[in-house]
From TrEMBL, chains A, B:
This is Maltose/maltodextrin import ATP-binding protein MalK. Belongs to the ABC transporter superfamily. InterPro entries: AAA+_ATPase, ABC_transporter-like_ATP-bd, ABC_transporter-like_CS, ABC_transpr_MalK-like, ABC_transpr_MalK/UgpC-like, Mo/tungstate-bd_C_term_dom, NA-bd_OB-fold, P-loop_NTPase. Residues 13-243 form the ABC transporter domain. It comes from Pelagimonas varians. The keyword Nucleotide-binding applies. GO terms for molecular function: ABC-type maltose transporter activity; ATP binding; ATP hydrolysis activity. NCBIfam families: PRK11650.1. Pfam families: ABC_tran, TOBE_2. Keywords: ATP-binding, Hydrolase, Nucleotide-binding, Transport. PROSITE patterns: ABC_TRANSPORTER_1, ABC_TRANSPORTER_2.
From TrEMBL, chain C:
CDD domains: TM_PBP2. InterPro entries: MetI-like, MetI-like_sf. This is L-arabinose transport system permease protein AraQ. Belongs to the binding-protein-dependent transport system permease family. It comes from the Bacteria. PROSITE patterns: ABC_TM1. GO terms for biological process: transmembrane transport. It comes from Pelagimonas varians. Its main location: membrane. Residues 157-347 form the ABC transmembrane type-1 domain. It is found in: Cell membrane.
From TrEMBL, chain E:
It is found in: Cell membrane. This is L-arabinose transport system permease protein AraP. The gene is araP_1. InterPro entries: ABC_transporter_permease, MetI-like, MetI-like_sf. The keyword Lipid biosynthesis does not apply. GO terms for biological process: transmembrane transport.
Amino acid sequence: MNDTSHAAKAPALQLSDIRKSFGTVDVIHGIDLEIQEGEFIVFVGPSGCGKSTLLRLIAGLDDPTSGDINLNGKRVNTVPASERGLSMVFQSYALYPHMTVGQNLSFGLENLRMERAEIERRINDAATLLQIDHLLGRRPGQLSGGQRQRVAIGRAIVREPVIFLFDEPLSNLDAELRLQMRVEISDLHSKLKNTMIYVTHDQIEAMTMADRIVVLRGGNIEQIGRPLDLYNHPKNKFVAGFLGAPQMNFLEGTLEGNVISLNCGMVRDVPVAQPGTGKVTLGIRPENIHVNLDGHGDETVTVQNYEQLGAVTYIYATFPNGDTLTVQHAHQIPLQRGQELGVSFPSEAFHLFGEDDASMELTR
Amino acid sequence: MNDTSHAAKAPALQLSDIRKSFGTVDVIHGIDLEIQEGEFIVFVGPSGCGKSTLLRLIAGLDDPTSGDINLNGKRVNTVPASERGLSMVFQSYALYPHMTVGQNLSFGLENLRMERAEIERRINDAATLLQIDHLLGRRPGQLSGGQRQRVAIGRAIVREPVIFLFDEPLSNLDAELRLQMRVEISDLHSKLKNTMIYVTHDQIEAMTMADRIVVLRGGNIEQIGRPLDLYNHPKNKFVAGFLGAPQMNFLEGTLEGNVISLNCGMVRDVPVAQPGTGKVTLGIRPENIHVNLDGHGDETVTVQNYEQLGAVTYIYATFPNGDTLTVQHAHQIPLQRGQELGVSFPSEAFHLFGEDDASMELTR
Amino acid sequence: MSRLTTFLSRTAGNGPDRAERIGITDVLAYSYLFFGVLIILVPVLWTFFSSIKSDTAVESFDTRLAPMDQISEMIEDVGEKDVWIYTAEDGSTQLVYKAGPTRKVTDVAPVDDPGAVFKVPRTSLAPHEEMRVAVENYLDPILKRNGQDNFHFFTYLYNSVFVTVIATMVTLLINAMAAFALSKYRFRGRLTFTILIVATLLIPSSIILVSLFFVVWSFGLFGSLWGVIIPAAATPTGVFLLRQYMLTIPDELLEAARMDAASEWRIFWRIIIPLSLPALSVLAILSVIWRWNDFLWPLIVLISDPASHTLQLGLTQFAGEFDTNFHYILAMTVVTLIPITLVFVWLQRFITTGIATTGLK
Amino acid sequence: AEIDLMISDVDGKAGLVKELVDRYTAENPDTTITINAVGYNVIREQLAIQLEAGSGPDLAFVTNLGGLNPHYVDLTPHVDAAEWEANYGAVLPWYRAGAPDGIFGFHTEMTVTGPYVNLTMFEEAGVDVPAAGATWEDWAEATQAVMDGTGSYAGMVMDRSGHRMAGPAMSYGAAYFSPDGKLIADDGFKTFSQLMIDWHKSGLMPPDVWPAVSGAKYANGNEMFFNSDVPFYMSGSWNTGNVQSNVGDKFDWTVAPVPCGPAGCGVMPGGAGLVAFKSGDADQEMAAAKFVAWMGGTDIAREWYSKTYAIPAHSGLQAEGLDYAGAGATEAVANGLAAFTAMAADAAEQTPQAYQLQGSPKGFVMYNATVQYIGAALNGELTLDEAMAKVQEELDTNANQ
Amino acid sequence: MTPAGFTVAFAALFWGLGGAIWLLMRRRYTLRQIPQFFMDLLGFPVELAQSLFGRAGVPYALLLPNMLIFGFFTFLPMILNFYVSFTGGASISLFDRPWVGLEKYADIFTCENYLSPKSCSNPGYNFWTGMFNTLWFVLIQVPILCVAALVTALVVNQNIRGRGFWRAMFFYPVMLSPVVIANIWNWVLHRKGALNASVGEARDAMTGLAGLSGFDMVATVIFAVILLVVSERSLRSNDGPSGSWTAVFGVLIAMLVYWSQPLSLIGLPGSGWLGLALAGGLYWSVSTGQSFARMAIIGAGILAVIMLLMIQFDAVFSFGRYRPINWLVTPNTGWPFFWLVFVFCWSHMGFYMLILLAGLQAIPSDLYEAAKMDATKPFRAFYRITLPLIMPTLTVVLVLSLIRSFQIFDEVYLLTGGGPGRETFMVVQNIYEVAFANDHPDYGQAAAGSILMAIVIAVFTFFQLWLTRRQSDL
Ligand SMILES: Nc1ncnc2c1ncn2[C@@H]1O[C@H](COP(=O)(O)OP(=O)(O)OP(=O)(O)O)[C@@H](O)[C@H]1O
Ligand SMILES: Nc1ncnc2c1ncn2[C@@H]1O[C@H](COP(=O)(O)OP(=O)(O)OP(=O)(O)O)[C@@H](O)[C@H]1O
Ligand SMILES: O[C@@H]1[C@@H](O)[C@H](O)OC[C@H]1O
Ligand SMILES: [Mg+2]
Ligand SMILES: [Mg+2]
């Protein structure tokens, strides 16, 4: 996606050493983050890792235990939510069920005692942009999931916020609608060019929408970067495993110098930048493994199960020692459970992780 | 997947001209279906098409308005649900919230006045199989989604039913758990070899789990067949569109003899079995379209948007006339919005649909 | 037996098709309902039918359904006399009046020939009756006719309506405010307040009657309608019910409103109140019932001021030391029933669905 | 001044009160009088509290003449005291609660307890109405015969009131006061109580009145008498008009001389009075007092007594005799009132304690204790001895201190 | 100025005037926003709290009005009650009340024999009679009320036509005032009321009918036909006799035995138990699937025919003349108490029914479908699924109805006046009479009684909550 140019002016949002505890439970453990104006930032991470909490801290719905939040260079820790100039789209949309779509959009503006004419103008603009003009008189209960989603976004837009916050806005939709709304939000971003912060635990959303992804785990940032950078150069095993479906295969083994001997029997030279000795994990993504039906290849594995999705085939196989391997093949292939399969592992697709799970540099 | 041999004996389940109305609303419009012992049958179809209704008719929870239901050759229309020897796993699991897992499993058996020892044996077997031994003393409220799911299946297993019925058992789970449970249920089927009827509207589940898929629409069967047969040879545009994500591309055009002229400008010879004249739709799946970055190819399209998923790239492009095209590319490729892209359409991947949306035979 | 138990265990969710088969279960269910409703309705209807009977019919406990009333006529030179039907031994009948004391053999005279007194056995006399709706039971007190000058129907009605409406509005407002605080804020003392309020559920009003009497008296609320309205406004039931309901309103809505720059009061007014309407209407119904029907407390507080009597207090007027005007009591009872019945008919939808959704449990 | 008057309606007086009030306010335009009509129970149960709380009425018709004394306005300055003493001297002490003087009310009704008899039922059963001087046992026998003969529900009924029972009890020797002036429940009281118990047990007296309710609740037998369910009804003079209007010509009735006992033929005098209450506002008190004074003037009193079919408490009017018939009373009513007046005279001689009891401010303690505990004995809940002890305990704690 | 007047003046100034000024200073209102202005003014204290203390101050401001009223009109009286119970005299001014210490309590507890209220002093006698009656009432009333409410809730939760109507109908009496309820039922239960009239007429009609010549024959034939149909029904199915029809058959047999009194042939009285035993045995043999069940039914059928011929039906249906029952009045019959329980159920059941209905509707219907698949017999589904799941709601209903039953006063005072005698004399009536319906109001005594009653209620409630501690939702 288009990369927004990072200007030299104050970042749209800056978090410094943000911490948050609920009672005795520490949830956010000191987070530093800078977001530039116009960026589309996605927070991903497993459930309970603190994504929503972080977003709510930014929004001003909760107060950080310590640390500073700066918006456009101004500290806003004590500014109430309504005055930070942010808009939030909630996971459940949180549309006011008893108001019409129009009233939902105007409520916030009325609270600001804006002139009626201006309110009208903004609502109409937003409604046109989101193609919900014809729905203004309806109640949320009379809308489909996708329409509700758009109203929720509309409510965020009319306030003309400096930053949009989204908390898993698509998680309640079914797969089809999700795909569609995903595209719409991306389009919106390229039209409005606002800063957007988007929380999800769906890594497809993260991959496809983000300018930069922030991967969170247990209240800490694991890695920040552009989607494909993260995909191709994960900083550690967690990030590697978290992005990509089916998951990256992890094969345990030991490294001696440049040579890696895996428990499954495979022995390979790997271009390690700093050769050494120790336990390592070799990572390889399912789509990078080549399948030879005739049984030839680097290694032979046994098909345990497979799934024909039409466009692709997932193969779940085992090495003789029992290590499992998932292979994604881009075509339909005839398979049998128990069948022997030759697979080859192109070493340029290798990822190597040390005992501390950190990525090891490879020279390629 | 393994194909169960269709023995000559009476089918495990036979539906003849089943109809069902609720009040004045006809929901099922005459369904005929035969299911052989040991088959894994999946009902798919859009929401409201009657999948659950059909399942409930089979289970005996509702009575058909007309038509016969035969189990192993015996008409069971008037046999109460409990005596049909079926087990059902509900979408919401319907676990008894006030009973422990063990009591949930034994409740049905106690109703049958089974010996305590036998009950214990069955519960232990099922619990071992499903790895829920350690949960037997807990209440459903203390279980995770996946565990509940397993308990629900356990409750179905202990009754040793002739047929298992599943009503969207995975729809309440999150994506990860869903994938995992999907594999578990498939494994279970290959272990137990029972007949299973499985309702879903998730086509990935349908594709990966079914021996045969029954595609329903508006209370009628659209097509029955093995997953890849349906994927590769859909009987009509509905089935073609319903299976596969991203959806098959449909390009409108006209056929004259063997030549198809599409609105987007493309003109191609197609090996139509019965050449003719008229409006047609050309279908081609996104993964069958080849991308040439250098702009060469059958046609040139403009990239509107693209999604880099790491393993694959989705490209959303438009023809000069505005027709849209989705392309699935099996690798990461560098792209720009607005970029021109050459695409080629291998004619062996063509599907052709007549004005009545029915598939037209192609000779290849 | 097993059928009987089917009926015990059935709940909602049996498809509508099940109802098409009329089984023994349905017969049992409908019989139960039918008799239940009979037991509920018959006394009420009986009261209504009695209320349109004449004074004498009521006082003599006439149990016939139709309102029969003995006719009396103005007999010349004699005065107003009840008319009896005399059945002679030959079966012929004649309208007569009693021309002397009632004895085994009584003097009577034909109505149309007052002079012709003759003797007949008492047992051959039957009252001469007509069917007549005794509208005077209603009209006398309402229009202050027939010596009912001291029954100020419209004052009582006004007071009852005033107490009911104002008390209900105040109750709804302050209970909703309290429930909002207890359901949507985390603050020091929340648990204490909640427990205090739930504990009030356990304090019957009759127990504190004596001291409440002292308190209200020292507030100077005696004889004032406010003395009835205010003490009853903060109902624990209401707070409890609304709180349970408000707990189900997603916090995200409030947060959305906060992002929308709404003040907390505005959130309450614009978001919480409209969304709690089902629970509020249940409480409104309950409050209307309570306040409209209140008797003992208003009796203590209001009795001294005739201008602030409510209908329920007015009703007591018909019971004297020596005599009780049952016909008026019945008629006015029916009158007090009417508004509550109308409210009931109008709101019964909310009652049945509302309570079910309020989480009043 | 604006003053209010509390009255229990229903008994037919409120209309007349209204008329008189209108007349009075026409003569005294600076006074407005609001009528607060309430149920009788309200006056019995609530008035004292209202007064205590300072929210009571300015005027009321009361029956608890002595008990409310602390709240009365002394009318002495507003009336011709000598004339009032002369006219109402017999009843004025009843309002004084033991104090030696003060004029506290206009006795609106001089009442005497006594029996009504359904002559038609007696005739039907072929039973003779017992003659004057017959004892309660004679009457029990006779009414039992009527009951048997007519299949009526009961033979005798008496209001559930300690006041009603006092007269008969005195006939059987109940002294009610010990020589040192304390209230007592003695053997005479016990003897008649035993008779009541026997009659309820045998069904001669119906369970609907005395045993039917509990505590000090009042109940009367009107409905039963009016419907010919019982031929004998121990009530009182105040009820005459009411009996007349309710019975009509359904049957013949009369007021019989009260049954007697070994100690005489006891009846209780009594009545109700119009009193003015202290309100702390001198104007208001004066206006209220003046209205009472006006009402008690001989002319208005005459009109009042005759129109309400009441025995006058005014000695002059007593001597003069009232023209009830002119006020619309039937012969039966007029005869009845005459009979009651005669009984009162007898009782004054034979059972003087009746007047003493009526004048005692603690009379109500006795009346309440009677219905409460003798009532309990009628149900078998207490034995008579236990009931007697409880009555005495009640008297000792609440009256004799 | 009265405290009330002062409060009103203060509130008017602070709220009305202060609020308006404050609001107008901070915000501009257009004409269209006048309603909004008044709304803001209403919530002015809350707005003020928010602006002074932030969001943390808001809940306190919101709670204030409610808690003020609770404080003054519930908690303060509660505390005053303690004080009053230690004072004597008849004055209503607290300062004029002499301190008497525990005297009022001592009066209540002055008893010779603590098991017999009548051995107590008069205050004790009245209090304990009321208390024991109330306890007795609660013990009988609460289970009956709850069962009736539950059964009704179950029925109206069915898939029946006009559900809303039935539900509403059962709720209707809840809306009636105690005065109205008492009037209505007095009217029905009076010696000459509707109930006696209709029972009398029905009974006379039956007796009259039975006296018709030929009635014996007709009744015998009708009964024979019913017997035939029922026994055929119970034997009809191929897989063993039908349980429900056998039950009906059993009832018929029991009736026949009762009427024909076969044991009187050998000079023994009372054959009723024999019929019940026979019916029970039949049902047992069928329900447990005994092999001899068919034979037993046939045998019983033959026996039934013999007994049928022995019966004199016009004697069976002759009840004699009906003597009206004085339902609310006759002492020592139990009727007044019965009707009190009945009327209380009648007027309160609808409320608890609705609460239970809400509980029932919260039970997901798919549990019943799962149970159906699990071959659960309906009754088992009731007590293994419905009952446990409705338990929390039922507990709430139990507690609420217990508290409410303890407080019974209006209804009973107006309906029976506590009588006959003291059969329905409840503790609240005692408190009321001591304080308010007395010529020497004894507030101290009444307050002491209130405190004792509060203690009893609290003990009961907590005991009940403790018993059901795991289920309660409270
Ligand atoms: N108000 C609270 N009090 C106590 N703990 C809380 C609170 N809110 C959140 N937590 C805890 O903080 C952690 C992070 O929660 P958060 O909602 O931020 O997770 P998340 O990343 O958004 O997860 P999900 O993907 O499930 O939404 C969780 O362990 C949660 O239990
Ligand atoms: N009890 C009922 N009464 C009336 N209509 C019903 C009833 N149950 C189902 N329907 C209707 O029948 C149609 C089919 O419903 P069904 O539940 O079988 O759909 P489904 O295919 O399972 O849908 P989903 O994927 O959303 O579960 C729907 O239109 C539904 O509204
Ligand atoms: O007066 C009502 C009472 O009837 C109800 O039971 O609880 C709340 C009180 O305010
Ligand atoms: Mg979250
Ligand atoms: Mg479904």
